[in-house]
């Protein structure tokens, strides 16, 4: 069974599917390379490091040609690095053996894909160092970006991953609701409360819900909400008082292998009447978010491609038309995966120009925001692309929540 045309589970490396994609893109091969984890995309695609039982501290290369058997190059003291993958691997020890072995590995190749982005246009793809690119070019081989291959073979979720995302999203919203309830009750009862206090309550609820993350959630009050990447700590925090705007940003995934992240942001106000200035700003953010959602869904329902930069432009244009252009500080959204920032398309025509198209089975955020010296507002939702549509995986905030 599939979910809206998406394969049901992640399988072993599908060489045949990769070769079809290579031929379609006019590539002779995909050269995957890593040294001590500098290229997480190569690790994800090949599964190197997930088998256990050996170290991988030296350079390794794995070439998937457009036709024929894959082949690799590994250090002699780490000869088992690629044994779980199809094809044979040559061993090297010294640097001269490395270069001669690499030249043999690339024999017959004219154009290969690597985790490289021209002019670093998409830095999330640019995982291979410049020196290694120079080394490959030294053998007369052109290096092209693997960005579209990464999308297909590293960023696509299957049924099991999609299920973990839905579960995580549901649990994040429960934590968010409990946090807003705590802020409201403490404000009403005049219990001294800081951002850090609420953050630590949320961290405990993460544990209760079986969620893990790379960081405790963000709780930002007042002027701190104007800093998109603020995080309170025990020593750097602010009191939450009456008539404060409070922004919650929380991201997490189930505590199990292969789980993928959900990531949401909501805003509330600890008073009966939200100031007009905040109301207007949030309305613009809400409309910008909905413009991004609308573009994605309308294009996919019409069986038309949609690119990351187009989503960003659709959302950001709403903010600019509303007079908030100079208050935009970040892109509209990012890919989701086993890390909160995944390897797929970002909704970005601001920090980068991401021209990759959204593929079925990929998950991402839409999260426009505007930021001022005394407050900031953002609305973050998650979407999953299906074969002819895209779905939201949580409710939409339509106005600032009154925390009274």
Short description:
The protein has helices at residues 15-24, 40-46, 95-105, 130-138, 147-154, 159-188, 195-209, 276-301, 308-321, and strands at residues 29-34, 60-65, 71-75, 88-92, 111-114, 142-145, 211-212, 218-221, 245-254, 262-269, 363-366, 369-371, 376-378, 381-385, 390-392, 401-402. By secondary structure, the chain is of the alpha/beta class.
CATH superfamily grouping of the largest domain: Creatinase/methionine aminopeptidase superfamily
What value does the Rg take, in angstroms? Answer: 23 Å
Biggest sheet: strands side by side, in what order?
A: 4-3-2-1-5-6
Q: SSE order in H/E notation?
A: HEHEEEHEHEHHHEEEEHHEEEEEE
Q: What is the terminal separation in angstroms?
A: 46 Å
* Sequence stretches where pLDDT stays below 50 over 5 or more residues: 1-10
Assess the beta-strand content as a share of residues.
15-25%
Strand element count: 16
CATH topology of the largest domain: Creatine Amidinohydrolase
The biggest sheet amounts to: 6 strands, mixed
Number of domains: 2
Question: Approximately how much helix is present in the residues?
Answer: 25-40%
Structural notes for this entry:
The chain has 404 residues and is α/β, with parallel strands linked by helices. The chain has 2 domains: 15-154, Creatinase/prolidase N-terminal domain (Creatine Amidinohydrolase, Chain A, domain 1, 3-Layer(aba) Sandwich); 159-402, Alpha-Beta Complex (Creatine Amidinohydrolase), CATH 3.90.230. The protein is built from 9 helices and 16 strands. The protein has helices at 15-24, 40-46, 95-105, 130-138, 147-154, 159-188, 195-209, 276-301, 308-321, and strands spanning 29-34, 60-65, 71-75, 88-92, 111-114, 142-145, 211-212, 218-221, 245-254, 262-269, 363-366, 369-371, 376-378, 381-385, 390-392, 401-402. Helix 6 (159-188) runs antiparallel to helix 7.
